[in-house]
User: Fold these one by one.
Assistant:
Number 1:
Amino acid sequence: MRIAIDGPEQLLAYCTSITPEAACTSVQLHVQVSPDAFADYWNAAQAIAGVQVALAANSPFLFGRQLWHETRITLFEQSTDTRPDELKEQGVRPRVWFGERWITSVFDLFEENLRYFPALLPICEDEDPLAVLDRGGIPQFPEMSLHNGTIYRWNRPVYGVVDGKPHLRVENRVLPAGPTIADVMANAAFYYGLIRTLAEAKRPVWTAMSFTTAAENLHEAARYGLDAHLYWPGMGETPAAELVLRRLLPLAREGLAGWGVGQAQADRLLGIIEQRCLTGQTGAAWQIGTVQALTRNRGLDRSEALRQMTQRYIEHMHTNQPVHTWPAP
């Protein structure tokens, strides 16, 4: 596989295994929804994916190079892409996929799975779903679930059965891990609050935004973090931090109240998001600034600067103080 990433610096590498995927550690958030509400929640999650990444960017370095603020996005897309060029030209979809349209039902996604993606693992179970239904039982759909698990949508549909009850979930997969548990919880609060408000809005945001624009927002945010300019209906191209502060934080607060989250807890977690926007210091921004300072002020080479930055990152992580409070070296 060829991995080519252009950022402030460039990376061109060829890999004979999927080992680079090990650099793609993520936090995956799930929200369980009714079948009737699934499309609204999935569309809402797609619409805000770029904003999530801009706020949470935390992987600016790979193999010693400074690349995207959230390099994990393009790395995951490339490190799993085994399509030869002729299949790409023919329009064969990649298995790490944002998608190509807003949906009206969860069936749209499962039908795309069948239409576009061959099974990687030809494993069949003994279950006959129709026979299970005829007996009044709940089918597990093991082949469907296995196949769905080999298609890495940034927001993935999940069917599951727990304690004999079937359910659907939206699995949100765009967020990186870290830098601290406090930051992860703040990212989760922002997501759960915002997705609820947008999914239940009388005029859905995706009716005023093209799907292509939502995909472009994701890659713009991955490149530039909080410095990205993202499109949002009614605001046009707007700096990510300004978009969050002026428009999206109040919506997230409203959504958390709808979930029954107490005001004190919502204020604490969303306050972290607010301060991250005001300071401009994400995990990626702190890493870049620290490496630059160590190189400029102390004359360290890139390798040693990265080593010392990582040591400091670990120390700060164990304090569980949000990244916007971390000092520069």
Note: The first strand starts at residue 2 and ends at 6.
Number 2:
Amino acid sequence: MIADWLAFWDKPHAIYVNARHKDVHYRLIAEQIAALVPSPRARVLDYGCGEALHADIVAAACGALALCDGAPSVRAGLAAHFSGNAKINVLAPDEVERLPQGALDFIVLHSVAQYLSAEQLRALLATFRRLVAPGGVVLISDIIPPEFSAAADVMALLRFAAAHGFLLAALGGLFRTLFSDYRRLRARYGLAHYGAADMLQMLSAAGFAAERAGKNIGHNQARMAFFARPQ
């Protein structure tokens, strides 16, 4: 499952309907993550960050920022894009696993859990529990609840597009998605869904004291976010 999704993200795709969509998407995420950075000296990890076009906004709010993505082409693009920013370091997943215990103050896992099996997510949370320092925070966001429908995703995108001036492009993009590799992968594997109680239990089993956040990261407020602190 994860290998096929990584292969998808590792090549050109049309998830973002145009450059405007991609820009406002990543800017919103960066601004919302930056607002949650616990201190100007915090050591931050954005795991599964994607292209993270505006990660410099997060870097400006913290002491050091590690960007991790499983797709080699995405990492190469990140390294080139942020080569002049001394605060930003690009890591592969195996490099994250080799970081020392307590190396991070704030870990973000945004819009990744839905592409993982429950076993893979539990393993990743165990890694985060080892890496987060006492007093640190883990943010797990864009969690899809069991009652969620694809139509809710569509409506959230269209509202976002209308607000940011790419509605016509979004309508065309939705049509193209019907025939895309993303649609085929989603039909084959589905996306992982978790109820709030299930996510809280999973985080507790991983050694965290967790709570649901009042707001999700990104434009889709039908999805959920959770704060987890080591206990």
Note: The chain has a mean pLDDT of 92.
